[in-house]
DNA sequence: GATATAGTTGACAGGTATGACAGGTTAAAT
DNA sequence: ATTTAACCTGTCATACCTGTCAACTATATC
């Protein structure tokens, strides 16, 4: 079942540093969409509506709410691979963020809450296994899907799967392969 | 849930002995980051941004606000250094988060919004210069203070300063040195 | 040292959204 | 079933917004 994620006025108020009365007034004015419960008239705000409202008013969006299901983080530095990957991912409707090193990847992981991460295993200075380990050991990242771009036919392939990778793509050019696997993983 | 701690223009003005009109002008000029409420256009200033602004202009930081941003991120993996560093930092009242690699450091930087970061320059697999570059080039991280633990008497020391480090500590043991410099940077 | 000039700040006024409070009710937790 | 905690409504004082103008500060020039 699809669990509807909603907020109360109090929660919304705390998220934007405001009194709950003010949130109710925003709703009354029609600036923020919400529905009412029959009993006391409690307001419930769908997270999507709330995030949209925050964006419309250029207010900061709390990272735990930003979870956009089509956001993908690509960790790669080779310009060719980066460009090809971005294009392939955008073609299947993804919102792509690119990181060139582990640190930036980390900031984007925590800041943008992507649903999926693509790691170029050949990237020097990046330990993909370490990253995967960390993701799998943290509940807040445990269900981020991970696709690894790794040379075909090596024993590493099995290592990646054991470490928790959701899919492997045999190196570079196969942009259609990447796109297909990402699409599949995001649709489940 | 992440509760947003924010200030109004009036509060910010009182904190730095200034007219609220002036605070608004700082915001309009882009010197102080803030967002607006949809109604009357009230400004809300995140405490971290405000403290960063105060530090950037060497204005005194009120203790009750400094307490809110005493969070420090320690990037190190050597167990001895990690333990010593954590202890030293806690002794000067810091709230310490430890990362063992760049990726984790990135997630903590974006997730915990530390006011200061300590980087062990000897950590293999970590390019501190790259991290520093990234911090300095992003407005949201630009006023995070950075202390580097680097071997004394090398030409690297100057490179670190040029790259934007706020202070250097000559390698390991000198825990009192680390604590003192961190304390200084957080209090100015 | 005195004067001119540009830029920043503070004061004031009119308008209005926001926060605080109180009394009542229900949703949620146990 | 009971208790606790959070939400609702209405009202009022407060604090914030905008715009304008005078006062102040810093810098440059004579």
Automatic annotation (TrEMBL), chains A, B:
It comes from the Bacteria. The keyword Chaperone does not apply. Gene3D superfamilies: 1.10.1660.10, 3.40.50.2300. One of its GO terms (molecular function) is DNA binding. The modification 4-aspartylphosphate is found at residue 120. SMART domains: REC. Residues 71-186 form the Response regulatory domain. GO terms for biological process: phosphorelay signal transduction system. Keywords: Phosphoprotein. The keyword Phosphoprotein applies. It holds the Pfam family HTH_17. PANTHER family: RESPONSE REGULATORY DOMAIN-CONTAINING PROTEIN, STRESS RESPONSE REGULATOR PROTEIN 1. This is DNA binding domain-containing protein, excisionase family. The lineage of its organism: Bacteria, Pseudomonadati, Pseudomonadota, Gammaproteobacteria, Cellvibrionales.
């Amino acid at each position: 079942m699809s669990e509807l994620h909603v907020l109360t006025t109090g929660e919304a108020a705390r998220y934007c540093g405001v009194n709950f009365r003010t949130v109710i007034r925003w709703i009354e004015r029609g600036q923020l969409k919400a529905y009412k419960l029959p009993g006391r008239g409690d307001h419930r705000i769908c997270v999507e509506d709330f995030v949209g409202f925050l964006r419309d008013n250029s207010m900061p969006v709390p990272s735990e709410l930003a979870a956009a299901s089509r956001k993908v983080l690509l960790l790669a530095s080779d310009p060719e691979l980066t460009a090809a990957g971005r294009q392939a991912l955008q073609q299947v409707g993804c919102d792509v963020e690119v990181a060139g090193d582990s640190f930036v990847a980390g900031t984007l992981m925590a800041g943008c809450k992507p649903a999926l991460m693509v790691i170029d295993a050949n990237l020097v200075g990046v330990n993909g296994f370490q990253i995967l380990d960390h993701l799998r050991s943290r509940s807040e990242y445990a269900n981020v899907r991970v696709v690894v771009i790794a040379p075909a036919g090596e024993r590493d392939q099995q290592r990646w799967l054991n470490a928790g990778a959701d899919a492997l793509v045999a190196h570079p050019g196969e942009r259609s392969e990447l796109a297909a696997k990402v699409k599949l993983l995001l649709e489940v």
